[in-house]
Each structure stands twice: as structure tokens, then as C-alpha cells.
Fold each of these.
Amino acid sequence: MKLLCDRIRKDGRVLPGNVLKVDSFINHQIDVRLFRAMGEEYYRMYRDCGVNKILTIESSGIGVACFTAQFFDVPVVFAKKSRSSNIPDEVYAAPVHSYTHGNDYSATVAKRFLSAEDRVLIIDDFLANGSALRGLCDVCEQAGAAVVGAGIVIEKAFQPGGRALRAAGLRIESLAVIEAMTPEEIVFSPDSLL
Amino acid sequence: MKLLCDRIRKDGRVLPGNVLKVDSFINHQIDVRLFRAMGEEYYRMYRDCGVNKILTIESSGIGVACFTAQFFDVPVVFAKKSRSSNIPDEVYAAPVHSYTHGNDYSATVAKRFLSAEDRVLIIDDFLANGSALRGLCDVCEQAGAAVVGAGIVIEKAFQPGGRALRAAGLRIESLAVIEAMTPEEIVFSPDSLL
């Protein structure tokens, strides 16, 4: 998505440790026009898939998920991050490791909000090692829900998550696929620049 | 807002300890049509106030804030909850006590995203003791930003936050004001039912 890649080039900052800071328009301050355009793009990609629920994970997935859900006219469910090892019976839970924050948590969703009737589009802001996305797929599998695919804002293609999950059969549509990045330059996949 | 009050009566559940569960349509699963209507209502109330930024706090404020911001066509900034006592120089921070979770955290906003030029509408899902709202006002004051008011989804008027903050001069518009609640009955303020 050229609009997004241009914006990442303009306002993103690459920090040591493969960190891409996009907090001025994605995950601390939110540019609602951009988010609306991204939601519309996911709708274009997945409109024929019978999506009846959008699943994301707190916190920074919620904004994109809301804008996306508006086009599909379906509810958003956001998984919660639980640090507790006490998982109550009424939730589905899957372990997630955050490489960014160096910690582990459980992605949890109340059982009432996911079922075998659901056709789920998973939305998240970043895909790198894929641990959060794998956790959300796991939660859907526990519920017997079908995952029609994932919509990711920024994929770091030089990290293994996207490749591994696609190899496992998951459809993933990432709006900006970064093939390489340094503080001086960000290289996007050719498709991202369309 | 009658639409919201009707929904709370239908799908909300009052649990012991003055807890109102609205997770099936507000803070775990999100009804995007309802959220859109709420955003439009805040716009009707605050459209003439020169709002140029919406401020909320992760996680459950983000959805309402996004839908509201869409009508104002301004950015959303969501404060982060930090458990760390190490607050870096580049953020504003204010202490918040969560009565629901029985813990303390800092509401933090990067200094780059709030300034003396800003006219801020604060959005949050609940107002009870007012600690989070007070923290967000505090952060704005540190930045020199003007708070034009707050838009709250559900206010528990039998807890002291709303009264105290209004007495201190803050404009607060709550879409559903609960005067009393028991597992059998929820009493809304007459204005909420219009």
C-alpha cells in the first residue's frame, strides 16, 4: 500500500535492534484517515470470504481492527494479554512471546465470543516472529472457528513469522512488507509499493 | 443515549462489588455500529469546541476514541499504562489508581504528541472514581494543552469521580449515567434515556 509505505519512509524511524518506531501515526498516535484507508484495503482483499468477526489483540491492534470492522459491519473481539498463570475456565488462552518487550503472556479470549460458527479475520499492526499471530490462530482453533486470513499493517519479512505461517497454510495480507531496513534506508517489497 | 442504555439493560451484567460487565459489546467484544453512533454523539456535543486531538488510555478507550476521531477528523493519542517507576524524560506521566484491578500505574504520553497548541477531547469507557480521567487531565496540563472536556461511555454516578471533576471545572458528557445498580435493576439518570 503505497500510501502507508510513503508514510513509513517519512515518519518512521529505525532504531537499533531492528526496531521500527511508527508511534507518531500507528501505535501511540493514530492517523485516522490512514487507518480508514487501511481498513478499506483489508475489506477489498477479504470481502468475499464470509468474515463475520474481526479478532485482534490489545492494545495497538484495536484501532486498525475497529476501522476494518466498520467496512465489514461485524464485531471486533480483542484478545487480552494476561500475565497471570491462572487462566479461568471461561476463556481460550494461548502462549505468546514478545520479542520486543522480552516477556511472555497469554492471549486470552472469552469463550462466549468465539465459536465454530465464526469466520475470523485476524488484524494486527506488526508481524515479525509471528508469536502473537500464532497465538490468535491457536485461540481460534480451540474455538473451532475458521480463520479466513490475517491483515497485517507492517510485516518484517526478514524475520521468520510470515514465511512460517504462510507455509502452514495461513493467508496473510500485509500492507507494508519490509525486506530490509537500516537507520538510513527502508526497503519495501515491490508489491507494497503498488 | 437511549440506544446505549437499552443495550446495557439487555446485555450488561451487574456483578458483586459494583462491577458492571459490558464485555459483550464494549470492552472485549466491540459493537461497531454502537461505537459509531457514540462517536457521532460526542461530535454533536463537542463539534464547536475546536478539538484538534482525541486523548484516551489503553486498551478499552481506543475503540471509542477511534470512532469519535473519525467524525472530528483529528488524530487519536492513546496514553500507555506503565508499571515501571522509571519514566523516561521524553514522556509526560501521571499516577493512576485502578480500583477495578487494585493496582497503580502511570498514564504516559510522549511529549511529542501533546503541546500547548492542542485542544483535547478526552474519551474513556468508564468513569467511577475518576482516577484515570484525572491522570489524563494531569498529562494535558503538563503539556500546556487545553482540555475542552471529556466524553465517557458509562458513568457510575454513585461513585465520586464525576462529581469531583465537574466541581473542579471539567466538562464531562457521559452517554449512560448510572445512578444505582443491583443485579436486578440498573437505574439511569433521566437525561441518559433521551
Amino acid sequence: MLNVTYERAVAAMEQGLLRYLPADKAHHFAEIFAGNSCDGVHSHGMNRYPRYLSDMESGLCDANVTEAERVSGLGGMEVWDAHFGVGPLIAEQAALRAVELARTHGIACVALRNNSHWLRAGRYGLMMADAGMAGICFTNTCMNLTAYGAKQPSVGNNPITLALPRRKGSLVMDMAVSQYAYGKLEIMAQKGEMLDSPIGYNERGELTCDPGEICKSGLMLPMAKWKGSALSIMLDLLASALSLGRTALVIGKPSDGEKGMSQVFICINYAAVVDADAVDAQVEQTIDYLHSLSPTEGAGVHAPGENLAAIREKHLREGIPVTEATWEKIVAAGEGVSSGI
Amino acid sequence: MLNVTYERAVAAMEQGLLRYLPADKAHHFAEIFAGNSCDGVHSHGMNRYPRYLSDMESGLCDANVTEAERVSGLGGMEVWDAHFGVGPLIAEQAALRAVELARTHGIACVALRNNSHWLRAGRYGLMMADAGMAGICFTNTCMNLTAYGAKQPSVGNNPITLALPRRKGSLVMDMAVSQYAYGKLEIMAQKGEMLDSPIGYNERGELTCDPGEICKSGLMLPMAKWKGSALSIMLDLLASALSLGRTALVIGKPSDGEKGMSQVFICINYAAVVDADAVDAQVEQTIDYLHSLSPTEGAGVHAPGENLAAIREKHLREGIPVTEATWEKIVAAGEGVSSGI
């Protein structure tokens, strides 16, 4: 494992992105990858960079499109079309547009269709929190989980984020509707660990606690059985309904590539209608209470995202941990690209 | 088990409610109890009627208050105060106010503080769906679950509903963030059934698969471990923030009674910005696909709420199933009350 400074990570990824994007867009996209890793969300930061480059190379993501087009709107509700462009750049625009609309309308929703992978859900909730507003954002995905009651990949893990501003560091929940990411199961399998309950099927269609077998089959169940399955179906249908965008069924199987997701950005300007200082005080009261609970394990109970600022600071100070293999890919992708493009 | 017609159920409950409410309010509140049972949600229908009467008797719910007061607003975002009034009557007003606001503003949010128990979350989502709009509603509750990482009742089960109109019968997910209701665990315990994973603690603070022990201790974990716990914390903090209402911590333990919840009603008028017929067609496409999956059990895969219309029709035709004990309480509560009050 290497520790790479944030600045060095941005510079290296920017270099490879210059193959596909103009300088300002390449720089900011590199900041997004590095920033997500810096916040500790490695799965949707630098680790994902090589795959995103290959998606732009293959055309799964159209690097020529870096802005969405407004389709329609009424008051605080707008529909935009990303035309299969660069996911995180366009998702940020959608989040900021929702913030802008919520200033006037109190609450706003930008429903975005045909966007590429937005990387990390929490990023967009945090952008709203940075503007002093609450955020509810969700996306659909390809069908990477088996619906409860079936053995085929048939529903998405559809990440959802809930965010709330907080003076001492905003709170953010960023959650896919599977108990684990496949990447996490792979790591458990490498360590020889077993799951404590059967959350997927093996290739013979039998329920199993073996994470390696679930990775091989690609047949993981949603979290919480029928509840996660229902949540997944509704998030998919809501996201595709509000944007008139693609459903998980149309996006297809993981092997189809993951093209043209439906994404929803709801932003709530509660500070315009209630005393935000009083809200902050009662949030602290709950967090103090959670900290006071006798923990069953060492770490104790925390509010979602509460430790994010500390993780970010640590990585800015000590560098972002990245595997040698990923770093080699990042450096190789930038070789031979003139930064004066 | 008895089968009671919808009309008879309404008439019987109306009688008892006349002790506390004027005739029109008593009648409609009786319709809400009977309607929820008629939709198959027995836990938040007639079964809950005796307890609601005693909450009005004790003053936990103030039967003199049947309308909320508007506190503040900006565009589609409004804050209302229920002043500890009659929960479901006021929650319906909030849902309808959100629908009204969404007609003009595209999206609307009514944040309601100090409301009594709203009974069934899905009711309010369905009201929005009946108006052709999508709904996202959630409430906080008392601290009836243990946060992940602790052994004390410390977070709520905070039900959330997601609803989407559909020509063949609207879709609605109505989900608390526990895998089971305590009532369901009681039924499992009576049947001698065990859970397939340890989702709570016994009175000695040990994880257990015995539903009876979890009922005794009141120490159930949220669904999906840290994920349900995070979802619960965020729903509580969001609901109390948007309304500047009480947090789960202030509402307290189940033994404190469950007084003055914070509730959120988000309504999205997507039909104003996209072609609702095209949405309906792609929703059907997904539902057809879910039905086509090879089921692991007999029932197969369904979209949330898909069978609701059939359940309602069956109960309207054949009567609503209710235990003798509950029916006796309902009848007894109405005795000696003049319907000409």
C-alpha cells in the first residue's frame, strides 16, 4: 500500500483524463476521484479511475458531453438529460441546480436521466449540506442483486444518500441496498472469512455464507431480505419515473456495462423555515447521547458521516492509501499525454 | 377470528370515538382504522384502536386538536405544528397540503411537528399517489430499537413510505427500519418458531434468535445491522430538523408513551414535467419482468403494494378478519355512548 498526497493524486489522474477531456474538466474530475478517496470512500474514488477511463475509451460514457440539458420544469421540480455524458461532473451540476432552486422554492428536485455512473452518492448530499440544506439523492444501477424470492440478478443496489448540515461536520449516510459491496466480499474471501448469514447464492443456486462463492455467482441478495428488495424496486421505479429515464431492467446486467442511469437530487432549504441553530443544537444532543451508549464493541455508536472530517484531514496530512496496482494503472494512463493539450 | 364488514367496523369504532371527537371527525377516524385493516395492514388498523382510545383518554393525544397550525413556509416547503393532536387526521391534512403545494411548485414538503402516532405510513403515500403524484413520507418514533453497536433502546424504527401512482393500482412501500415488528415476533414466539439470525438481545444482553426473548427484553436491532441503524438515525434527525420537532431521544422510551412525533410529507408532481403514460408503461415493463422471474418460493416476486387492491377487494367482499378479543374491545368502547351526541 502506498500513501499518495492529494495533490499528486490529482495531478496524476488529470494527466490521463486529458486524453478525453479539456483541461478544466480533466482537473476537476481528477479532484472528484481524489476527493472521494480522501474522504475514505476508496471504492468510489481512485480505485474506480481505471474503469472510468476505459468507459470513456469504449464510449459507454460519452466524454464529449460534460453538461446536461434541461428538458422541462415546474417550480422547484426539473428534469434534465445527461445524454450519457461524464457522470460525476453532470451529477454535481444537478446537485447545485437543486440547491439553486431550493433557495427560491424551499424544496427542489432535479431528476436526471441518462447519466453515467456518479461514483459516490454521498458527494451530492454533502454538496447540499455545504450549502446549508438537507439532501436526499438516489440513483438506480444495473441489476447487480437478486430480488428477494428469485435467484437471478434482477434488481439494482441503487445507492441512496441522506445528508444534513452540521456545524461540527455535516452528517451523511451513503448506502447501497446490499449488506456488502462485492468488493468487500472479495476482500473477505481473500482473508478466508465467512459471512454470519447466507446473503447470496452459489453457482448451484444454493444459499451460502461463503463470500467467494457469492462473488463468483454474482447472486447477492439485497440487505434485510424483502425489505431491501422492496426498497431497491421502489428507488429504481421512482428514479426512472421522475426523470422518465432508464429502469434497472433497461440498464441491464452488469455484463452489459452500466449505461445511462436515472438519478434524483432532492434538496431541502429547511433553514429558510426553521431556526437552523436550534436544529444544530438538537442534532448535537442526539449525537452526544449516541456517544454515551455503552458500546458492544470498541468503536461505539456514531452518527453517519460523523468521522468524515477526521478521515479527510488524516489523508490530507498523511496521504491517501492506494494499492501499488491501482497507482501503477493511474500513472500508466497518464504516460505519453501532453499536459499542454 | 371474526370477519366484520367494513361498514360494521366503521360504525362500531365511530361509536367509541364519539366520546372524544365531534361526529364528522369520529366517523372519518373510524374509516382510517377500518381502511388500514381493509388494506391488510392489521397492525396499524383496528388492532390499534383500543390503544388510541386510551391515548386520548390519558391525554397523550389531545383529542381537542384535529387540525395543525401553519408555522412558516417558503414556496413548496412548509412547517406545521400538530400540537399533540389526533395523529392520522392531521397527517392526512399534511399529505393533502403537500399535494396542493406540489400542483404549483412541482415538488413540496410539509414538515409536521408534535403529531401523535399517524398509524400507517403507507396511507399518506397512497393519498399522494391517488392525486397522481409520487410520495416520500417518514416519521420518527420512540426509541424502540438498539442502535447497532449498543445494547440499549436508543433509536426508533422510523417508518418510511415510498409511493408511485400506477394505473393498475399504485405501488407503495411501507417499511419500518426493523426486520420485524415486535408484534410479529410475538406471533413467532407463540408458534415456537426461531429466527434464522440473531436480530436482538435477551435480557442478559446476549444476541439471540429467540423471538420471545427479544420481545421480553425490548432489545431488537435495526434491520441490516449498521445500515438500518444509520438509516434510522438519519430519518430521525431529518424529520426533527425539517420540522424543528422532537427527536427520538426527546420522544423517549416506549414506556414513556409515544408523544409528539416529527413527520415529513414530500410530494412530487412528476406528471407535470414528464409523460406520465410513458412512466406507467415502463413501470409495467419492470413489473412484468419481476413476475417472469423463477421464484425460489411459491409466491414469486412482486412490486411493493402490488397486491393491495386485491386484498382490499377481498376484505370488502368477505369482511375484515379481526380477533374476538379486539372486536370485543371495540364493541365495549362504544357501549353507552349516544350516537346523537
